[in-house]
Design goal:
With about 250 residues, the chain is an alpha/beta fold. Helices cover about 45% and strands about 15% of the residues. The strands form 2 sheets. The chain has a 6-stranded mixed β-sheet with strand order 1-2-3-4-6-9, with helices on both faces. The radius of gyration is 19 Å and the shape is globular. Bound molecules: hexanoyl-coenzyme A. Hexanoyl-coenzyme A (HXC) binds near residues 23, 64, 101 and 131.
Length: about 250
């Protein structure tokens, strides 16, 4: 069985499921290659409108595979192509459904998502410092942007994880639900997103992420241009007319 499974539970929704439970879904090179491939394909697939990323109901991911890394040389590490890029640049909304541990590269993987639904028993941490390294896929950067310097530093410098509740209070997750409801909650959110006009959804994701790294002024220009662009879509006409005519809109992605 593949170490990353691809499922299609409903129209427009793809599920990417890590499948190495015996090693807590540690991200070896095979898994990372498959993640990059699936996210590239799903990003290009017109029928896919939202992606759920999960590790199943026990563990999200315990980080990069330490066995894979222990004897690596700097040149070998450097020579790897950036397998995170296809996930980071995926134009479709990504929801991480997190049960159990999301540690190291696992926490960084969750932070590549746009929405994180966590179970009560989930925990998030960047324990790399304990094994002599540091985060390498956004732990120092995405985490700090999400929770601020002082909470990020506490996690990064001690390696201590935080609970789902603490993660919610910090702004590291979107929502905490009972462990048994994580996937269904993610699916419900995905279905809502899929019912929205796809071009508006894609513009919202693109502008929100690009704007985070720009000045407020530049980001506001980006937002305004994307806002104006959406007036060229039939979905804008349909959405507004449907509201005025008190009926359900029929969005076509055009
Ligand atoms: C390789 C791992 C692993 C990992 C767990 N395993 N995490 N193997 N890489 N990251 C393996 C264990 O060796 C063990 O294999 C099996 O999974 C079960 O693990 P246990 O420790 O027995 O399970 P448990 O007691 O439930 O503890 C779970 C755990 C712990 C808290 C998640 O395994 C743990 O601390 N793992 C390491 C977490 C970590 O340091 N992550 C950061 C990695 S560095 P056997 O053969 O004994 O059954 C990183 C850098 C990212 O992520 C850089 C991005 C570019």
């Amino acid at each position: 069985m593949s170490e990353v499974l691809l499922e299609k539970p409903a129209d427009g929704i793809a599920v990417v499921r890590l499948n190495r439970p015996e090693v807590r879904n540690a991200l070896n090179l095979t898994v990372r290659d498959l993640l990059a491939k699936h996210f590239t394909d799903l990003g290009n697939d017109a029928d896919t409108r939202c992606i759920i990323l999960t590790g199943g109901d026990k563990v999200f991911a315990a980080g990069a595979d330490i066995r894979d890394m222990v004897d690596r040389t700097p040149i070998e590490v450097m020579a790897r192509r950036d397998l995170w890029k296809p996930i980071a640049s995926c134009p479709k909304p990504v929801i991480a459904a997190v049960n159990g541990y999301a540690l190291g590269g696992g926490c960084e993987l969750a932070m590549h998502a746009d929405i994180i639904v966590a179970g009560e028993g989930a925990s998030f941490g960047q324990p790399e410092v304990r094994i002599g390294i540091m985060p390498g896929a956004g732990g120092t950067q995405r985490l700090t942007r999400a929770v601020g310097k002082f909470r990020a530093m506490r996690m990064l410098l001690t390696g201590e994880p935080v609970t789902a509740r603490d993660a919610l209070a910090m702004g590291l997750v979107s929502e905490v639900v009972a462990d048994a409801e994580v996937f269904q909650t993610a699916l419900r959110i995905a279905k809502t997103i899929v019912s929205m006009p796809p071009l508006a959804v894609m513009q919202i994701k693109e502008v929100t992420l690009a704007g985070q790294d720009a000045s407020l002024e530049a980001a506001m220009i980006l937002e305004r241009k994307a806002f104006q662009l959406l007036f060229s879509t039939t979905d804008q006409k349909e959405g507004m007319r449907a509201f005025l005519e008190k009926r359900k809109p029929e969005f076509r992605g055009r």
